[in-house]
Amino acid sequence: MPYMKNLPSHLQEKYSTFCVLPWIHLSTRPNGHLRVCCTANASSAGKTNKKKFGGEVGILKNDDGKPANLNHTDLLSGWNNNYMKSVRHQMLNNEVPPSCVKCFKEELAGHRSKRIWETEYWQSRVNLDELIADTKEDGSVPPKLYYVDLRLGTKCNLKCIMCSPHDSSMWVSDWKKLYPEIESAPLKKLMVWDNHGKVDGATYNWHKDNPQFWSQLYDQIPHMKQLYFAGGESTIIEEHYELLQECIDRGYASQIVLRYNSNGIEMPDRLYDLWQHFKRVRFHFSIDSIGSMNDYIRHPSAWSSIEKQLRKLDNTDDHIEVTIACAVQMLNMFYIPDFIKWKLKQNYKKINPWPLGAGMINYHFVYHPAHLNVKVFPENFKKKIVKKYEEFYDWLKENFRDDEEFLENTYGIKRLKGMVSFMNSEDWSNRMPEFYEYIVKMDKIRNTDFKSTFPEMIELLEPQSL
User: Fold this and answer.
1) For 287-313, how does the pLDDT look when each residue is reduced to its tens digit (9 = 90+)?
2) What is the DSSP letter of 227?
3) Backbone angles phi, psi at 14, to 5 degrees
4) How many other C-beta atoms can be found within 10 angstroms of the C-beta atom of residue 58?
5) Ranges of each domain in the chain
6) Best exposed site among 150, 226, 331, 368 by fewest CB in 10 Å?
7) What is the CA radius of gyration of the chain?
8) How far, in Å, CA of 17 to CA of 29, rounded?
9) How far apart, in whole angstroms, are the C-alpha atoms of residue 59 and residue 231?
10) Can you tell me the distance from the alpha carbon of 18 to that of 15, in angstroms, rounded to the nearest whole number?
11) What is the pTM of this model?
């Protein structure tokens, strides 16, 4: 297993599959499902719709096999239910839990996984030996949540091409037009939205209808070291602001780091006012490309507004950290070198300053929908991407940095090489017909034009690519 930088050697040697998150963290889905972490339920994504561990791998299950959902499950019951205890127990026995396959696949491809970077981040902030020592034989641990990931429903102001009505309310109207027109059985299966998300007692208003959840979460505030908010879009969700105010009123804001993945479309002044009370704010601005390409991916955003928000964030207080968070997928993998060149030319003061993203940008992979995963590219186009990246490595050395610190940085050229290796690690090109149908139908629904927006990728919509 990959070595974790600075992790105590006695733990690294004894617990080769260890990840800190199941001991300190819980994550939610917009429909109220609890999960091991925000990427765990992508571990079932694969070449086909067949799921080795079931489509809800990573979602905490109750003893009846149904998802632990905050519409009918309280927060602390989920923390030590049998599913969560099993994950911890497997890690302490050097087994890879099914919910964690995604991270280990990324690591084998040379990519720096969430398991790696989260454990390295937290090992200096919590006592790992103490966490393990406090773990009972059945895998249960004391109810101390240091880090909570909240997806407060689906209210959003964008409908990104890789999203769905599961995560964005804006997507509902497009889904109603798209789904009845889908002809491909695999695509139809992938794009299903069972009972409009109301399955096993789930609803997207769980955060409005579960006072016990909020009571238990507020009781955890004294332990809290990090709160993470993601889609829906937290900056337009009132409960997000109420939680920040509660942390301030209880006197613990100064010990809490706030993390966001946000589209940055709406950033009201009261948000900046609340941020002043917190220890640190780590704002990951979700931007996936430049100009019209980003507008196509993060529809219907306007690039001019994105640029204005970047300049505003570039002049915020020192305790606010700003990074560009790029969701790597088929529509931007080819153009990431161009995106990095653009970013470097802006000469931002505090957007991905060294060493964040090695001074460039940050990346994470899109797993759902599977037909946008970078492994889907046909072999010939993968070769074009490899060639472009190899040329870009030379450009970076000549025009950005060629010192050892940069060349050895895990978020620099090594990260880019890891992304290419991940792309080439499996052949999912059998999903190309799904990609084709999806793009053609979405262009018709949204009045967008893939071929004019991504001219270098026109061949992906030609018959020989299918």
Assistant:
1) 999 999 999 999 999 999 999 999 999
2) E
3) -85, -35
4) 27
5) 287-303+314-466
6) 368
7) 22
8) 25
9) 17
10) 5
11) 0.92
